[in-house]
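Why does residue order matter? Because the sequence determines the fold. Keep that principle in mind as you read this record.
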Amino acid sequence: MTESRTSAAGRVVVGVDGSESSLGAAVYAAGVARRREVGLLVVHATPWRGVDDALPMTDPDIRAEYDESATTLVRSAADTVRETTGLDDVTAEVIQDHPVDALVALSATASVLVIGRRGLGGVPGLLLGSTAGAVVQRSDCPVIALPDEPAADDLDRRPVVVGVEGREGDGEVLAFAVTEARARGTELVAVHAWREVGMEAALGGFGPYVDWTTVEAKAQQLLSEAVARWGTEAADVVIRETVARDRATPALLTASETAGVLVVGHRHRGRLARLGSTMHGVLHRASCPVAVVPLQQ
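Structure:
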């Protein structure tokens, strides 16, 4: 059993807790690792330090049994991944730390983290706000959060969908999405949602007099400019542009219904800050895996 100073060394990292959903996440993570041509690190994090302080185990045999069960759990998960996917470069490790802290520490050197939306590390059943949401909020690398329901068999053949805000940071989000689409051999759908709710409310009865066609044309231009560079740099990837007159959350949720993965950006706002409403809604309700690319404020 090791501390969370373990390095991911550029591998894809997935946390397991013994649940069926976490095993599914590990198998999915193997696919991510294979497409990126890197290894997979399967970890089981046990919040032993906090437990040890509050509820010390005085019997060394019990402590040894606890450690052995954690090791068996993570090795079993790694074996399942190898047998199911044929991926050989799979490493299993137990980390002595809170699951969220362990994965956040690993994100400093990981290429991607893969997690379930519920259940993580050594504490199964924790809700999104204290696990997946916390990892997304603090991770240094992209995080792929998987839906609660079993993944559809054709996910890898579905298009990659990316949310484009028209702000600084779109380039990083698009770069991740292009890489995913190229590796999967699918098209990329770039979605930009626009709806000036505040403006519409302020206009009141004058809304019908606004030339919304011109507003939408500007939104289309913004999206086209954001993805323009990839027409050259990723000529092998078909990019389709979609402008939706809607708020971001419902537009992205609709797009997720036919997507293999939904890629969005998230700006770090500090450890104690809450997820924004769009990110919270997408993580809770998207029909497909959600890849969250960290952006600095």
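The first helix runs from residue 20 to 36.
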